[in-house]
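[step 3/7] fold_predict: job queued, chain A
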Amino acid sequence: MSTTTVSSGAEQLIARDRELLIHPYLPGSVAERVVMTEGSGCRLRDVEGREYLDATGGLWLAQIGHGRSEMAEVAAEQMQRLEYFTSFWEFTNDRAIELAERLVELAPAPLDHVYLTSGGSEANEAAIRMARYFHYRRGQRGRDWILARRNAYHGIGYGSGSASGLPIYHEGFAPLLPHVQHLTPPWPYRAELFDGRDATDFCLDELERTIEEIGAEHIAAMIGEPIMGVGGMIVPGDDYWPRVRELLSRHGILLIFDEVVTGFGRTGSWFAAQHFGVDPDLMVTAKGITSGYVPLGAVLVSGEVAQELARDHGFPVGFTYYGHPTACAVALKNLEIIEREGLLERARDTGAFLLRELSGLQELPVVGEVRGVGMMHGVELVSDKQTREPISMHCAPHDVIRRETGVLVRDCAHTLVLSPPLVLTREDALHVVAAVRSVLERMAPDGTIAGAPA
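[step 4/7] structure written:
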């Protein structure tokens, strides 16, 4: 195909996209579109033949990489046998049962029941409902408060969106779910949040004070990402989650771990709960459960909670695609590949290598901190290393990196975040670091980037 034909076809696709599709977070004034057409491993190609190195995993999820033919084969095989039938009431299917067995094998011991959804927002909606319903079934009908954190992201449903702690998910959408309280995130680098105190000590004191003010008898659960992704790849101190778990347990408050991003090897363990040594009451998963090949989510539930949900008429919440057999078959194959190819070890080893290489960026004037766990990394940008003032991102360094180098990274809370497929090689890691450096070393404290378009 000639370049002229490709360009003409690309122009037509882009024009139709602008006419028809509403993109999340994209102002109508932005005309640019990047039309992806192919993927293999950590590489992507757009309709005009440009190649990209994916250091984002799409939206944190491409654990096994793009373009795996065996994933297509297992989906096709399952569709030919049974593409879908409802799993409401007494109906079920073999693939859903097999996936539930596998998830229980991989999860922390208390989590021995599974509730399936179509993705992370649905799963967080379900988990919040489960927490409230658990206490309701026990006769504690006033326990309906949900504790969350500022800068958190738990999805965009009305329950999950209310638990999300970023203003963009609240402004213009009120009234939101009532009885949601947001707390300070455990962001050790942001010392100004903690009045000079240890971040964990500050957060635990705040949590205990909040429980006293609201009353433990009114609080259903606390929901939290083990590592906050969209909020800026915030890694808490090692003692944060064990101390939160102990405090909540003392007051009969459930702990919901939102592992939509951190699950299935992203931290180098199957789940971040294992990384931090914590047993939650409910654990929300999605994204990496299928590496994005089809939509699927799952809430893993402790036996104590599941027993209450199953009483009487059962849990009266279900989604049309609950237990979708094709999605479950794809998830099983995805988990098999992660285990067979040693991708948890790969996430730890290559992730540690990438973190070491990225840490060299801290010599640059605009880099305040580099942090990460497994295959999750953040490069926080500041205008002043002493005051730690966040830098202006009006030049969008992630966009400049994409345009100049073809490496895809994200911008979250004045932090460049990386969450590449777990199949990333060391060679690719060095390529990513070089690309990021090539732009950040030209970035001034006012956020401008020398040589970048205004």
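[step 5/7] annotate
Residues 62 and 292 are 6 Å apart (CA to CA).
Confidence is low (pLDDT under 50) at residues 1-5.
exit 0
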